[in-house]
Every structure is written in C-alpha cells, then in structure tokens.
Amino acid sequence: MLRFPAAYNQARDYCQEPERLARVEEALRKVTGRPWSLRVEPSPSNAAAPASGVAEDGPPPRPRRNARDEAEKRPFIRRAMDTLDARLVRVDEGFGEAGSAGEEA
Q1: Residue 57 and which of 16, 70, 79, 81 are 20 to 30 A apart at CA?
Q2: Is residue 11 part of a domain?
Q3: pLDDT in tens, 54-96
Q4: Local structure of 54: helix, strand or coil
C-alpha cells in the first residue's frame, strides 16, 4: 500500500493511474521475483503529527538506532533504490524485525 498525506493529492492521483501503478508493480516484480499488487490511498487524517511537532502526552520518543541506515543496507531496499532511483523517506518502527506485520513465512 502506498499512502499519501492529504497535501499530496496530485501526486496520489498521478501514482494511482493504472499505467503508472502497473510500472511500479512490474519494477517490484523484477527486483523481488514475486508478483505485487499495490493500492494507493490517502493517509488517515488522524495520522497527522500535532501542530507543535511534539507529542502532548507520554515520554519523549526513543532515539532511533539509525533505522534509516540499517534499512538502506538491506539488499531488497538497496536494489529498489538503485533500480527505481528512489530514496528512503521513512522507516516504520519495527521494520525488519522478526514477526513484524506483513512478513511472510
């Protein structure tokens, strides 16, 4: 699934056109050797960060252990970046950990 914040409606519309989506799915298939079916949708509105940029309740976020650097070292990510001339924008918490959501056996 590819999610776009509300401010990126034009980019979302561009990417969800069938021909463009098919190109991305084909590139992923070439990189991974497996078929892909992507869905493009807006990000949930409640996922927006607070206006101040700081969470109002709870402890401060843990420092990330260079999650981006670790993700970029993974062969799949590195090849996708090289093949698609992409850049890593965000690494979700728990990415690459055993038993994470979406991981196949």
Answers
A1: 70
A2: yes
A3: 444 555 555 555 777 888 888 888 888 888 878 777 887 777 6
A4: coil
Domain count, the chain: 2
Q: Which residues pair with 4 in a beta bridge?
A: 42
Closest by alpha carbon to 77, among 93, 100, 96? Answer: 96
Do 96 and 71 contact (CB within 8 A), yes or no? yes
**Is 101 within the bounds of a domain?**
no
Which range of residues forms the domain containing residue 77? 65-95
Task: Report d(CA 15, CA 22) in Å as an integer.
Answer: 10
Q: Give the whole-angstrom CA distance, residue 31 versus residue 69.
A: 20
Over the stretch 10-24, which tens digit does the pLDDT of each residue have? 888 888 889 998 998
- Is residue 91 one of the residues assigned to a domain? yes
Q: Are residues 8 and 37 part of one domain? A: yes
Quick check: is 54 in a domain? no
* Whole-angstrom distance, CA of residue 12 vs CA of residue 73: 28
DSSP, residue by residue, 56-82: SSSSPPPPP-SHHHHHHHSHHHHHHHH
